[in-house]
Specification:
alpha/beta, seven-stranded mixed sheet, four-stranded antiparallel sheet, 11 strands
Length: 489
């Protein structure tokens, strides 16, 4: 079927040869990553002009493909692993994470149930217990009890599956016809994934309460405002059933008061979910563990190992106290999936803890990260980024033209260029222009948010290769572009 010399679907020696070429290519990419503009500078549709209209009829050489990657693909890549990447939140790669991803791709099994690959299920349970213990999560979240951990693709999937579990749990109690009465609560700083989860789960968006926050509480969700909203909804015959709190909000990395919110959720019989997608990683350090105090009140807890934990995307860790709530909501058991171990309830089948049937061997990369770096080095890694953010914060406060807008808790600094004559309308345009100017240099990439009506610049430290010199250089870019903008007024 395949001629001599052509690449066969799977041949051990060809894999060795081609794999070496690919590893060399990727290693060279990381060695030269600082040479690329961090934010891709291409125009929409650029690639259509560079690639043919149809696939080749005959095979091409790997070197030709890699040449095209270098010349045509990489210019259209925004380099998330660049040491000059400071936008959104980090999405970490690492040698250990890459090796685990490579091994997972090499084995390429689909571990939806225990029998399809016992090691995949059991390793996932073990590494999530390891990580849960590093975070000092309550024992109810560990696999030895009624709960346990599962790797989702993203935090968006995590909030969706627990919302579905909470929905079905409450509807069992109040009747399926009550779906239109169910109410979800979060803050106006809660990730938009909560709204999407409501749309998918059939919860009307009018019943998704995103309660207002302000600078007086550093944009954290107020327990008093939550109680008022719940009381009003209940007086209108609605049913509060789900509360989402955040540890490290997207806009400003603020932390909601978990203990107080959890007690409110318990009082009203609501499912309490904690989204610590970004900042959860920092909580492996004893000095930052306090930010998830109150997690003992939660029904579910989520953090993204692929954000700030040296684990290649995707790897979102979700723990629940009651695994049966997930299983009852998400389980299907067609004849072709039935087997002795599952039928006897002797094993965990992760297909019943997630939306899709298929799942990859993602626990391998988390296992390799934990083993090849160890807890102490992972803690040092997190602390280093937080110290670099403190350093950047000091640079901002040292320039009277700028201000820090929100307290820095982790490795995110929210800041802005002050408008001349305190003209706030002009201030928003000024900071928008500063963002565009800085990103257009290709030297750095930062992103923005809006807090209290003000356009704010976000500087998130967390790329694996970032050092103090990169932070210093980024600040110089911002200062230079600010000077040019202010000089043109």
């Amino acid at each position: 079927m395949f001629r001599e010399g052509e690449l066969r679907p799977m041949d051990a020696e060809q894999l060795r040869e081609y794999g070496h070429q690919m590893v060399d290519f990727i290693a060279d990419y990381y060695k030269t990553i600082e040479n690329f503009p961090v934010l891709s500078q291409v125009e929409p549709g650029y690639l259509h002009k560079l690639l043919p209209d149809s696939a080749p009829n005959q095979p091409e050489a790997l070197q030709n493909v890699l040449d095209d990657v270098r010349v045509k693909i990489l210019p259209g890549v925004t380099h998330w692993q660049s040491p000059n990447y400071f936008a959104y939140y980090p999405s970490n790669s690492s040698v250990a994470g890459f090796l685990g991803e490579m091994l997972s791709a090499g084995i390429n099994m689909i571990g939806f149930s225990w029998i399809t690959s016992p090691a995949a299920t059991e390793l996932e349970m073990i590494v999530l217990d390891w990580l849960g213990k590093m975070l000092k999560l309550p024992e109810e979240f560990l696999s030895s009890g009624q709960g346990g951990g599962v790797i989702q693709g993203t935090a968006s999937e995590a909030v969706l599956v627990v919302l579905l579990a909470a929905r079905d749990k409450v509807l069992t109690r109040v009747g399926k016809d009550s779906l239109k009465k169910l109410v979800v609560y979060g803050s106006d700083q809660t990730h938009s994934a909560l709204q999407k989860a409501c749309q998918i789960a059939g919860v009307h968006l009018d019943n998704c309460r995103l309660l207002k926050t302000d600078s007086s509480k550093n944009y954290a969700l107020s327990p008093d405002i939550l109680c008022d909203a719940i009381s009003q909804d209940m007086s209108n015959g609605l049913i509060p059933f789900f509360l989402c709190a955040t540890v490290g909000t997207t806009s400003s990395a603020t932390v909601d008061p978990l203990l107080a919110l959890g007690k409110i959720a318990k009082k009203y019989g609501m499912w309490f979910h904690v989204d610590a997608a970004y900042a959860g990683s920092a909580c492996i350090c004893p000095e930052y563990r306090c930010y998830i105090d109150g997690v003992e009140e939660a029904d579910s807890f989520n953090m993204n190992a692929h954000k700030w934990f040296l684990t290649n995307f995707d790897c979102s860790a979700l723990w629940v106290k009651d695994r049966n709530a997930l299983i009852q909501s998400l389980s299907t058991n067609p004849e072709f999936l039935k087997n002795k171990a599952s039928q006897a309830n002797m094993v965990v089948d992760y297909k019943d803890w997630q939306i899709p049937l298929g799942r990859r061997f993602r626990s391998l990369k988390l296992w390799m990260v934990l083993r090849l770096y160890g807890v102490a080095n992972l803690q040092r890694y997190i602390r280093n980024h937080i110290n670099l953010a403190k350093y950047f914060e000091g640079l901002v406060t040292g320039d009277s033209r700028f201000e820090v807008v929100a307290p820095r808790l982790f490795s995110l600094v929210c800041f802005r260029l002050l408008p001349p004559d305190n003209d706030e309308n002009h201030g928003n345009k000024l900071n928008h222009d500063l963002l565009d100017a800085a990103n257009s240099t290709g030297k750095i990439f930062i992103s923005h948010t809006v807090l209290s009506g003000k356009y704010i610049l976000r500087f998130a430290v967390g790329a694996p290769l970032t050092e103090e010199r990169h932070v210093t250089a980024a600040w110089k870019v911002l200062q230079d572009e600010a000077s040019a903008l202010l000089g043109s007024l």
